[in-house]
Every structure is written in structure tokens, then in C-alpha cells.
Amino acid sequence: MRRVLTAAAALALPLSLAGAPAVAGSHGTSATAAVAGTQATHIADRPTTPMAQGPDDICNFTDSRPSLALRASGVAVQQAQCYLNQAIGAGLDEDGDFGPVTQSATRDFQRCAGIVVDGRIGAQTWSFLSFWANAPDAPFC
Questions:
Q1: Under the phi-then-psi rule, with left for phi > 0, alpha for psi from -120 to 50, and beta for the rest, what region is 134?
Q2: Tens digit of pLDDT at every position of the chain (141 positions)
Q3: Shortest CA distance to 113 belongs to which of 101, 99, 130, 100?
Q4: pTM score > 0.70 for this model?
Q5: 75-133: which CATH topology?
Q6: Max CA-CA distance within the chain?
């Protein structure tokens, strides 16, 4: 498919290659004047403090997301159990033991989420679990 360059795009291309912000002028204003006028405004509007990157996590056992399966144990399992409780109301003890009950809850969650049902918690399941558990409408299913 061929692309057709408009006059604004043709003007923006050399500006962007030169390292200047690509802003096309309008109504007789040159691109340089448009850039100079808007650049100061945008710099002044930037926040001086870092912005938050998302909501606080509902479960705070660990940030680690290792692959988990039957007979795994530790704080990552507690994190997964907490997420399962929040996401689907699994009612698990958050004891850090990935036993048959946690495996069954994991399968229930995976079926509900429409992802691969294998009873293990890998990257895809962690991603869905953390999103669903922290969603305002949880529990689901």
C-alpha cells in the first residue's frame, strides 16, 4: 500500500529528522513559530514530581512472579493464593503451600479467565491474576 504525504506531513518530516518537534504551522504561522510558541507551554506544564504508575497492589507478600506448580511453597505462593481469593473468591488459606486445593482454584481461575488451563501459575496466569485481583469489581466468576 502506498502512502500519500500531505503538505503538513512533508513539512514535519524534515523537522523531525533535524531533531526539532514536528509541528506544522496553520493559518500563515511558520512551523518554527508554532514550535517555539508551544514548546515553552508544554515544558511549564510538566509535573515536577513523579506520577504514580498504578493502584496499590491488593496483596503485598512479594513482587516476585516465579512459575508455580503443585508442591511449590513460599511467599510467591501466598501472593498467588491472595490473588486467587481476590479474583474469584477462592477461599484459600494464604499459607504458602501450593497443594491440590490451590491447584484446583488455579484451574478454576484459568477457565474463568479463558486462558490455558494447566493448574500452574506461569507468566500468563500471573498477568491475569494480578490484573483481576486488583480490579475494582473483583471477585469475578
A1: alpha
A2: 444 445 544 444 444 445 545 444 444 444 444 444 444 444 455 444 443 344 588 999 999 999 999 999 999 999 999 999 999 999 999 999 999 999 999 999 999 999 999 999 999 999 999 999 999 888 888
A3: 130
A4: no
A5: Muramoyl-pentapeptide Carboxypeptidase; domain 1 (1.10.101)
A6: 72
